Amino acid sequence: MRIISGTKKGMNILPPKGSDTRPITDRVKESIFDVLYKYNLIEDRIVADIFCGTGSFGLEAISRGAKEAIFVDSDRRAIEILRMNIAKAGFGEQSRVVCANAFKVGAPPAVGGEKCSLVFVDPPYKMSREMGGKWRLVELLKLLPEQITKDGLVVVRTEEKVNLLDSYGQLKIIDKRVWSSMTVAFLAMKNDEQTSGNTDNSQSCKPIIA
Fold this sequence. Notes:
- By secondary structure, the chain is α/β, with parallel strands linked by helices.
- 23% of the residues lie in helices and 29% in strands.
- The protein contains 6 helices and 12 strands.
- Strands 3-2-1-4-7-11-10-9 form an 8-stranded mixed β-sheet. The protein has a two-stranded antiparallel sheet with strand order 5-6.
- The longest helix is centred in the middle third of the chain and has 14 residues.
- It is globular.
- The two termini are 30 Å apart.
- The C terminus is likely disordered.
């Protein structure tokens, strides 16, 4: 893994230990950022990398001009390596590390209270499946609209066989890409007309496992 572009282009990222995390390949990460550039949500913006692992997405965003990245993960081993990667890149002042359950805290605001414009959601595959009758990923997608800017974007990576619905509460899918065994969905806030008259139905919010 490495930083692909920007001020730290070519810097190798220390990999995670064990098999609990699923580092994204450089090729797929570059393809995702190619899609993101047309939305102008990186440079001088606040981004969040939740279920961040060792920080590949957030570090890439800072390298490409993000003002600050908020990293959220509950795995202390991954957080330890993340801090090493932040120090290696010299991004300490532009990074906020939150060791917490991302399903509960979502994308916390920056220290100054600014909301995130871009949120990467990349939970381990087993965590994006139904657990005890609840879809934790869906609950997270309901929380995030309160934490992002009106022009914000949420990027979700899941198994390819998880077929996300077109919308979740205030978020709607505006683009979707499939790479190998994974799907990456890009969700934006609905406008006022789309939101009005929209009834929340918890049954309709479930991802479908094909």
